[in-house]
From TrEMBL:
It comes from Thermodesulfobacterium geofontis. It holds the Pfam family DsbC_N. This is DsbC family protein. SUPFAM superfamilies: DsbC/DsbG N-terminal domain-like, Thioredoxin-like. It is found in: Periplasm. It comes from the Bacteria. Residues 95-255 form the Thioredoxin domain. The keyword Ribonucleoprotein does not apply. One of its GO terms (cellular component) is periplasmic space.
Amino acid sequence: MKNCFYILKSLIIFCLGFFLIIACQKVNSSQNCPKIDSIQKSIDAIQPGIKVESIKSSPVEGLCEVVVNLPNEEKGLFYTDFTGEYIITGSILEMKTLKNLTQEKLKDLNKKVLSKEQLSKLDKMVDFTYGNSKNIVYFITDPDCPHCKKAEDILDKLVKEGKLTVKVILLPIEVLHPEAKSKAISLICDNKGFKELMEGYKSSNICEEGKNKVNQNVSFLFNELKVRGTPTFIFPDGEMITNVLPESYILQKFK
């Protein structure tokens, strides 16, 4: 019986030692990553204006994950080896789950959440409201944005089903859509709503109130909230996403 006990004890000690070795290897792999300064020098030689924020071990042994701050105020991600001599761009896929680990990491890095104060200011910028559900989403849109039109169809369906209320804030991006600003202004001046937005409404009514309101929208959304495109959704928890969101994602935010 004693022999069995000692054998079991020895086996436990061996297993603990084995797992400690594995743990130490993982720690060492992170410690073996190149220093920020050395990678920053390499980046400066290739693309000035990109700032290295952090370097740590990646999900793949032997590779290090480099997080950078891009000129557009978003974060980027690439990989390097322990020597720092190679830069690897692209995605890491986990074959068991088929998850794109790089895209998931980028999504977390660039996730934007507004404060309660910012949400309060945002509510004052609403141009018109569509629906009467308790589930409210802010929808920032450009009247001539083709991707916004896809989002509008999804929102229209959810509102008609009584599942959503949409608070619309107009953000014309003139560089891309030269007529968008005049459309946004006329929607406000003529007291139009979501139906007319979907139909591409435009009139010759370019009132001062409408011009001032659109200019306020552009200044607030670009400068304070750092909105960089349309369509942009903002949810009651402050999460801000610029993309055409599927119906399933929108609804799960209110569960």
